[in-house]
Amino acid sequence: MTDATVSVTDPKKVESSRPDIFTVRGLLSIGVMLSVIGLAYTLLFIQMPQANREVMSTILGALLMALKDAFSYAFGSSASSDRKTEALISKGAPE
């Protein structure tokens, strides 16, 4: 019978090999926020047919929901849970 060995990957090496998730989340949130501002400006100050205005209002509502989700994640319990998970991972696996 052979001995099986388990290799534990160093969490710091795994972290360095993937993009920073906070940067990706931040960029997506900023993109949604800029889209909301642009659509709101368009609806308020640019003349357009009523049918187009209704479509733009629907798109603005969907983007506002995405922005709400981004803020509720960033300032809610999900971000706190991620920080706790990262802290547990950084302690290492029990031996």
Structure description:
The protein is an all-alpha fold and 95 residues long. α2 (21-45) packs antiparallel against α3 (50-75) and α3 packs across α4 (77-91). The model has no long low-confidence stretch (mean pLDDT 78). It has helices at residues 11-16, 21-45, 50-75, 77-91. The protein contains four helices and no strands. The protein has a domain at 21-72.
SSE layout:
Blueprint (H helix, E strand, L loop, with lengths): L10 H6 L4 H25 L4 H26 L1 H15 L4
Record field, number of beta strands = 0
Strand content: under 5%
- Residue-averaged pLDDT, rounded? 78
Structural class by helix and strand composition: mainly alpha
- Helical stretch count? 4
Order of helices and strands: HHHH
Ranges where pLDDT stays below 50 over 5 or more residues in a row are none
Note the overall shape.
elongated
Distance between the termini: 23 Å
In this structure, how is the largest beta sheet organized? none
- Rounded to an integer in angstroms, the radius of gyration calculated over CA atoms is 22 Å
Range of helix content: over 70%
Entry keywords:
mainly alpha; 95 residues; single chain; elongated
Characterize this entry briefly.
The protein is mainly alpha-helical.
